[in-house]
Write a structure and sequence with these properties.
The structure holds two protein chains of two kinds. Chain A is an all-alpha fold. Chain A has one domain. Chain A is 79% helix and 1% strand. By secondary structure, chain B is of the alpha/beta class. Chain B folds into two domains: 209 residues, Response regulator (Rossmann fold); 141 residues, Rossmann fold, CATH 3.40.50.2300. Chain B is 38% helix and 14% strand. In chain B, strands 6, 7, 8, 9, 10, 11, 12, 13 and 14 form a nine-stranded mixed β-sheet that branches. In chain B, strands 2-1-3-4-5 form a five-stranded parallel β-sheet, sandwiched between helices. In chain B, helix 12 packs across helix 13. The radius of gyration of chain B is 23 Å and the shape is globular. The chains are: A mainly alpha, B alpha/beta.
Chain lengths: 335, 444
């Protein structure tokens, strides 16, 4: 970092970038048909979860294979609040952030003592175990059936303002502001003192400790922030139709990690790119297989295969992901 | 992380990825989505890949084969039926996306034959909210059908687990009054519905003694050793299984390994398909003769004729169509193929019944008013009415013989009928209409 930016400058920059993202997705949605509008809503939702990995793994070096489970915590919190206490969805989303953050605090207390593969293993177990809790205590969590929840209908003032709003547009309008706010928060956190502290811990714990940083406390704080984001993503994700164990399977956690790695674990721009890839790549492949008239026995396996291949190629050829590649190209142009 | 320029570049690059898949479908939609002068488009979601796919992944190919046959005979009122299928991998999160794809990109007229309870739960509210007909869901979960005010457009494609369990429970209780009856069940909607049905018939089980449960989907990784061991230790004579086919196979193999031989096995039908049972055990290295010997003697129920009943007129006709029109990877004749064909037959009847001026509300209203009069291969009456959207309200009980053909228990096929609540189990007097020579339904 060549110069220390003032908070005001960082805040201004983060605001500007979050607004650019918001407006850009909105403009893009106007060009798209309903299905791709819904996919943009998926991108906005999953981006929040991928950003939670960028924060946790990219910025502070802690590996989590269980972000999907924290999403489930957020999803169940919001669904329980809406169905049992009948509070508004918006308030439920905000409260889900706090519940997930609290969950992240407990997780962080354990995680502060673990690192590397031990932490990855623990979080993977969490990804496997949390959905089972819903089944074990089914009278409270509604077992496999889960909770049928959705975004409801757009408010009248918005319909009066914009005209008729389709279900897909409404999905996007619900998810996008949260995505932009999350982007703003992560940009801010990364570029201020907290972010520098986290990176110091990531790069060398001993050096960071010598510089006066409380390692355990820092790790816990990152877990809290990351879990808050994952929980929010989980709540929005669940309200697409259902909050149930099958909505948050283990491979959701792995898919999110894949997005973060493809984009570049340490890059926020990479998180956006990676999310676009995991959401849109299966559609691109479907179009190609349709065009090439490939038999169903091949085409149904292609999306998972291609995403896996892309992940492997990224790790082997360019571990810093697409963001790293982009930076490399920029540097080559400069010199 | 100074990412100002890269971030903007990334947003643009990401948008380009998105642009690649921009919806190419023009806005010239017909007045009724999915219906043109020459075509009716139906959409199905089911697991074509993944752990839950074996057996069930044949339903779409079978249904398509029947529709292709109908199309070869001139279609329905001059329109061909096109079936678009999406693989949801049995993951509810994925089902939400594939449903939107079917609605918005493929512009389907109606959902048809969707497989799975949890997966369908994730979209059923949305489908009904949009007024899209949701035909013949391949789930026996009664929650979809017994309150038509909640899901007015959703109609069942199977009998409910509760109805089947009530009929099975009554039989076992009366036939084996002195035997100790136990249950192995998966702790989800399926298992719970079955337990409720058995309880309604007077069969109660004791937790950790005669009742052994497992978390759905864990039988492959964790196995069922503890559960089968528990039933053996408690001297259970008759084991009822309410679980998917792959779990049934694991249960039998585990019992064999533990030298546990209950007097009888009784399996709820969705987990009792003989071909799937043998395929799963075959993949574990069990010879067909051995797996056949394991399953022989098992009691199960069916609303349709036994897949192995070569003399049944519907089976004969459907088998011929399967041979000639099924282009699927595995077209071996079994219960899944029969089910796919039968609901396609039922859909063709309903579409014929509505007539040339086909709309979504007309189809739903037709099924409410006339659905119970539609015929199919089933020996059971269809329950569709203003108060319930359950499909097959009757089952006959059978026992697998040595060649794994399901034969009526005690020699004569008796179809019992009941409801998904506390109504009594009675003998049905429904007479199945004969199939036409051309295997096309006749309506009206």
């Amino acid at each position: 970092m060549s110069k220390v930016k003032t908070h005001k400058v960082i805040g201004f920059r983060s605001t500007r970038l979050a607004i650019i993202f918001f407006v850009f997705i909105l403009l893009l949605s106007m060009k798209f048909g309903p299905y791709n509008q819904f996919q943009l809503a998926n991108i906005a939702t999953l981006l929040i979860a991928v950003l939670s990995i960028t924060l946790l793994t990219g910025a502070s070096g802690q590996i989590s294979l269980g972000q999907g489970a924290i999403m489930a915590v957020g999803g169940y919190s919001a669904a329980l609040l809406v169905t049992r206490l009948e509070i508004s969805m918006w308030l439920a989303f905000v409260l889900a952030i706090f519940v997930s953050a609290l969950f992240g605090l407990f997780l962080g207390l354990a995680a502060a003592r673990l690192s590397g593969p031990y932490l990855a293993g623990t979080t993977l177990v969490m990804a496997l175990a949390i959905p089972s809790i819903a089944i074990r205590f089914d009278s409270f969590f509604s077992g496999d059936i889960g909770f049928s929840v959705d975004y409801g209908y757009p408010p009248d003032w918005l319909t009066n303002l914009l005209g008729e709003i389709t279900i897909e547009e409404w999905s996007l309008y619900v998810a996008l502001p949260f995505a932009a706010l999350s982007l703003f928060a992560v940009l801010n956190l990364s570029n201020t003192r907290s972010g520098r502290t986290w990176r110091a811990v990531r790069d060398n714990e001993v050096a960071a400790s010598l510089a006066g940083i409380n390692i355990a406390r820092t790790k816990i704080i990152v877990f809290v922030c990351s879990s808050a984001l994952a929980g929010l993503a989980g709540a929005i994700y669940g309200f697409r139709g259902l909050v149930a164990p099958s909505v948050y399977p283990t491979d959701l956690s792995l898919l999110l990690l894949t997005a973060a790695v493809i984009g570049g674990l340490r890059s926020i721009g990479g998180a956006i790119f990676g999310t676009f890839v995991i959401v849109f790549l299966p559609d691109v492949i479907e179009r190609v297989t349709k065009f090439l008239e490939l038999p169903e026995t091949i085409s149904i396996y292609l999306p998972a295969l291609m995403i896996g291949l892309l992940l492997l190629l990224t790790v082997i050829l360019n571990p810093r992901g697409s963001a790293g590649a982009l930076e490399h190209i920029r540097h080559r142009h400069k010199h | 992380m100074n990412l100002r320029k890269p971030l903007i570049l990334t947003v643009v690059a990401s948008a380009l990825v998105g642009s690649l898949v921009m919806n190419g479908i023009s806005a010239t939609a017909a007045s009724v989505p999915g219906v043109s002068k020459s075509q009716i488009v139906l959409g199905m979601q089911l697991p074509q890949t993944g752990g839950a796919s074996p057996g069930y992944n044949k339903i779409d190919d079978a249904a398509r084969a029947y529709f292709d046959y109908v199309n070869s005979k001139g279609g329905v009122n001059g329109r061909n039926i096109k079936l678009v299928v999406k693989d949801d991998e049995y993951k509810a999160g994925r089902t939400i996306t594939t449903a939107r794809e079917l609605i918005n990109n493929d512009k389907i007229f109606a959902f048809f034959g969707s497989v799975g309870t949890q997966t369908h739960l994730s979209v059923v509210k949305d489908i009904n909210r949009r007024g899209i007909p949701d035909l013949f869901v391949n789930s026996g979960y009664s929650g979809f059908y017994t309150d038509p005010k909640k899901y007015p457009n959703t109609f069942g494609g199977l009998g409910t687990y509760t109805v089947e369990a009530k009929i099975l429970g009554k039989y076992l209780k009366e036939k084996y009054p002195d035997k100790k009856i136990g249950i192995l069940w998966q702790s989800d909607d399926f298992g719970r519905n079955a337990l409720a049905g058995l309880a309604a018939s007077g069969l109660k089980f004791e937790a950790r003694k005669t009742s052994a449960s497992f978390v759905a989907g864990t039988h492959g990784s964790i196995g069922l050793g503890t559960q089968i061991g528990q039933l053996k230790a408690n001297g259970v004579d008759i084991v009822i299984i309410a679980a998917v086919s792959s779990a049934t196979a694991v249960a039998y193999a585990t019992a064999a390994a533990l030298a546990y031989k209950p007097t009888k096995w009784a399996v709820i039908s969705v987990g009792a398909d003989a071909t799937t049972f043998q395929t799963i055990l075959g993949a574990r290295g069990t010879a067909p003769a051995t797996s056949a010997a394991l399953l022989a003697g098992t009691i199960t129920a069916s609303h349709a004729p036994a897949a192995g009943d070569a003399d049944d007129e519907y089976i004969k006709a459907f088998k011929k169509i399967n041979d000639d029109f099924n282009n699927g990877a595995d077209k071996r004749w079994d219960n899944n193929v029969l089910q796919g064909m039968n609901i396609a037959y039922l859909a063709t009847s309903a579409l014929l019944g509505v007539g040339k001026k086909l709309t979504r509300p007309k189809l739903v209203s037709y099924l409410k008013k006339n659905g119970s009069k539609l015929s199919s291969a089933a020996f059971s009456p269809i329950g569709y009415s203003g108060t319930t959207h359950e499909a097959f309200t009757g089952f006959w009980l059978g026992e697998y013989d040595a060649s794994l053909v399901l034969k009526p228990i005690d020699g004569t096929r008796v179809v019992y009928t009941t409801d998904s609540a506390n109504g009594p189990v009675t003998v049905s007097n429904y007479k199945r209409p004969a199939i036409a020579a051309d295997a096309l339904p006749r309506v009206g």
